[in-house]
Amino acid sequence: MGRIILEQVTKSFGDVNVIPPLDLEIEDGEFVVFVGPSGCGKSTLLRLIAGLEDVSSGQISIDGRAATELPPAKRGLAMVFQSYALYPHMSVRKNISFPLKMAGLDQAEQNKRVEAAAKVLNLTDYLDRRPGQLSGGQRQRVAIGRAIVREPAAFLFDEPLSNLDAALRVNMRLEISELHNSLETTMIYVTHDQVEAMTMADKIVVLRAGHIEQVGTPLDLYRNPRNLFVAGFIGSPK
Ligand code: ADP
Ligand code: MG
């Protein structure tokens, strides 16, 4: 589960084309990082996959199913928002179980999934607190917990660490990598941070003005950047 294929996907806002025809294959269980400068279309691409934006043309399939016409909730993906998207008046438990409640799961199943996610994320002792009583890192873990309980085919992260301080960012980077190792679920991770890309990715997709400059493992891109733009982004001279 978690194989995502984009075929000739385009996106325009009005007359402005933001994503020219783009093809991409993401394998089951891969940790894929979209990297590129601000405004290059990373968030747009993620939102197209999530179904939060409609493609202008082209096809997206998820595990062999045509996803392009499906609403976000039917795609089986979970977008992880930054921690400030938590509900401040709800406990951690309620924040994490919220999507399950919306989906109509019974209370026992909700509790089971929340407790399993809390265990993975070291939040077991914090389930009765409110987000305001947690550290930044704990809040970010709650946001991830809300995605985990849905048991998605893939997780989509849009710069999840950008509002954390530097030390915490390093920590969360490791935690998300460990989470990927234990869940073995596809993760698509958007960042403009080269270090995050190089240290977390199985596969890096380098974007520039909506098109893919190069796709490869961190080592591929480091050793054989196709051009100066990629080299500049990955940090090795060519
Ligand atoms: P990134 O996430 O890489 O910074 P975005 O995907 O947010 O880039 O944006 C890519 C381009 O699309 C930018 O030029 C941005 O202004 C434009 N864009 C994004 N969303 C919209 C929108 N809803 N309406 C019009 N233009 C948009
Ligand atoms: Mg963005």
TrEMBL record:
Compartment annotation: Cell inner membrane
One GO MF term: ABC-type maltose transporter activity
Entry GO CC: ATP-binding cassette (ABC) transporter complex, substrate-binding subunit-containing; maltose transport complex
Transmembrane segments: none
Membrane topology classification: Peripheral membrane protein
Keywords on record: ATP-binding, Nucleotide-binding, Transport
Main subcellular location: membrane
Span of domain ABC transporter: 4-234
N-terminal signal peptide: none
Family that this chain belongs to: Belongs to the ABC transporter superfamily.
Protein name as it appears in the record: sn-glycerol-3-phosphate ABC transporter ATP-binding protein UgpC
Positions spanned in the full protein: 1 to 238 of 335
